[in-house]
Amino acid sequence: MVIELLTAHASVRKYKDSPLSKEHVVELIRAGQHAASSNFVQAYSVIHVTDTDKRAKLAELAKNPQQILSAGAVLVFCMDFHRIQQAANLLGKDIDFSHAESLLVGVTDVSLFAQNVAIAAESKGYGICYIGGVRNAPEEISMLFNLPTGVAPMFAMTIGVPDESNEVKPRLPVEAIIHENSYDASKYEDIIPIYDEVMNDYYLSRGSNRKDAVWSDAMATFLGSPKRTHMKAFLDKQGFEFN
């Protein structure tokens, strides 16, 4: 049953006008907290955006008004070392989260936490979508939600009752992902062209937003030039200095 739920995931971008109660949101977040955490740091916090004006401003800054304004709940997931700093201060101690390993710990923790929330929401029949557009304006969004040093918004998530049913995107064949005992790059010459054909068929036949495209070309375009180059300066400002 759990595997069927996981493999049925498809992002939902249109929701019915059916807000989630705070009790339901707390239930989902509590489930999220039971994700694995490196050294039990729990380096995450989440902003539940219930204020109408703040939600509208978030939609503008993230450049994603349709989902953010219509969803039953909007959550902003943050990497958080400020709480740990506070805990250390209570003991008269200090911490150093400026190095690259802390950044990786924080990103991993918040991602595992968020994915647990997503699975919990889908198990209840809700649809979800991750909003990476939060990183379009991380400084402004940090100001909007009063995020202190040591806290950085990573992405948002919209949750709600689906008003659409999207097809599941075909994933890479599992053979492309699994490497037994050593990394084998030679197999990609055979696997990728076949996968491109599968994705092209999917894009041409899906119910909406049809296009003539393949995965490898889309990825080459997406990663062909730097994206959101402001993120390093923002993370430095929040205390993540990559030392």
Mean pLDDT: 96
| Secondary-structure class | alpha+beta
As for the CATH topology of the largest domain, it is NADH Oxidase
Taken together, the total number of domains comes to 2
Order of the strands making up the biggest sheet = 1-2-4-3
Largest sheet: number of strands, sense, barrel closure: 4 strands, antiparallel
Span of the ends, CA to CA: 44 Å
- Name the quaternary structure: single chain
Element order: H for helix, E for strand:
HHEHHEHHEHEHHHH
Broad CATH class of the largest domain: Alpha Beta
CATH superfamily placement of the largest domain? NADH Oxidase
Q: Uncertain regions: pLDDT < 50 for 5+ in a row?
A: none
* Count of beta strands: 4
Short note summarizing the structure:
This protein is an alpha+beta fold and 243 residues long. The protein has eleven helices and four strands.
What does it look like?
This protein is an alpha+beta fold and 243 residues long. It has 11 helices and 4 strands. A 4-stranded antiparallel β-sheet has the order 1-2-4-3, sandwiched between helices. Helix 2 packs across helix 6 (100-123). The longest helix is centred in the middle third of the chain and has 24 residues, at 100-123. The termini are far apart. The model has no long low-confidence stretch (mean pLDDT 96).
